[in-house]
Specification:
437 residues; mainly beta; Leucine-rich repeat, LRR (right-handed beta-alpha superhelix); nine-stranded mixed sheet; 36 strands
Length: 437
Amino acid sequence: MNPTKSIKFTILIVSTLLAFSATAYDFEVDGVCYDINQGNESVIVSQISSLNGDVIIPKTVINKGKTYLVTSIGDLAFFGCIGLMDVTIPNSVTSIGDHAFSGCSGLTDVTIPNSVTSIGECAFYGCSGLTDVTIPNSTISIGNNAFEGCSGLTDLIIPNSITSIGLGAFDGCSGLTSIVVEKGNSNYDSRDDCNAIIETSSNTLVVGCKNTIFPNSVTSIDDYAFKGCSGLTDLTIPNSITSIGLGAFDGCSGLTSIVVIKGNSNYDSRDDCNAIIETKIDRLSFGCKNTIIPNSVTSIDERAFFGCSDLGCVAIPNSITAIYDNAYACCTGLTSVAIPNSVMNIYENAFNDCDDLTSVTIGNSVTYIGNYSFSCKNLEKIYCNCAVPAEVRDNAFASVDYNTCILYVPKGSQKAYKDASVWCNFVNIKEWEPDKK
C-alpha cells in the first residue's frame, strides 16, 4: 500500500472514531468525559469537552451521588488537542490508552504516576513539544510508536520494570542525546554506556540516537531502530553485526559518512562508497546523500535511501537490475533520476513522494513498474527508452498531472503507448530519439 494513502486511511479511521466518541460517554464533570467500567466502581477518561491549556484529572469523580475511581486514560481521550499544555494524571490510573495524547503538539509536561503499568500504542505520538517524560518503575509495557515524533525529548530513562518495548516506540525522537536503561532490567540494557536500548537475550539494538556507540557484543540492529534520527551524521557498523532490520536508518537525513569496519562477513562499504552493502548478494542495504554506488552492486534494497534529503541527481550504475520497494521514497531534494538499461524491475513505491522530482528517464530493459513507483506530484518529463511499453501497475504514476507531464517515447512507438493501459492517461505523448536527448 502507498504509505501516504496508508497514513490518510489511518487518519480517516481515527476521525471516524472521534466522531463516534463525541457523544459516546456516560457522564461529564468539569469538562472531562467519563465512561463507567464494568462492575460500576471505576471510570475511564474518554474525552474532554473543553480545554483551557492545563488539565488536572481527579483521582475520584462523583456522578448522581456515586463516587467512582479514575483508573484509565482511554483510547483517543485527548487526541489532537493541540491546546493542551500540561496534564496531571492521578496515581489511581493504571493504563494510558492507544492514541490517548496523540497529536498534542503543545503538550510540554506530563507526569506519569507510579500506578501506570502500560502505555498504549501511539499514546504520545507527535507530541513534539514534550521535552521531559518520566516513565515510572511500575510500567511494564510501552506500545508500538508510543512516543514517535516526540522530537523535543533529549533524555530517555527506561526503568528496570519494563519487559516490552513496541516497534517504533521512539521513532523520530530526533532530539535524543542520552538513552539509559536502569540496571536490573532483565530484558533490556544499555551496556558500555552506548546510549541505546539493547534487547539483552538477542543482543539486538532496538532504539538508538545520534550519540549511540555500537558495542562489539551487539549482533543485530532492529527494524526502524534509528528511524528519524536526523542528528546522526556519522555511522560506523562494527564487524559483529550480522543483520540490519528493515528501515533501520529511515529518515537519518543528516548522515554524511557510513563505514562498515573491515572483517564483517555480512556487510561492507567497499570503495569508500558511504553505504552499507550486503556482501553475499551485492545489494545496497542503506545509503546517504554522499553515497557513490559501486559498479559491483546489483540491486538497491527496500528503503535503502528512504527519507534521504539533498540527493540532487541520482547516478545509478549499469550493474543494477532491481530497485526495491520504497528505495528512494520521500527523498526531498531529488530532482532527476536516470534508470539505466540494466534495470528490469522497479518495485512498489520506489520513488514515491519525491516531490522535487521533475524528470525521469526509464531504461530499455524495464519489464515491471510497481504501484506508486513514481507517485510524484511535480513530475514534468518522463523519457522512455522502451519501444514496447513495460508492464506498469495502474497507480504507478499516481499524483502525476497527466495533463501537463510530457511522456517522451521512442520514434515509431507513439501509438503503442497511446493504446496501452496507464500510458494512455498521458495527454502529451511525444516521440524522441534516446541517443539525441
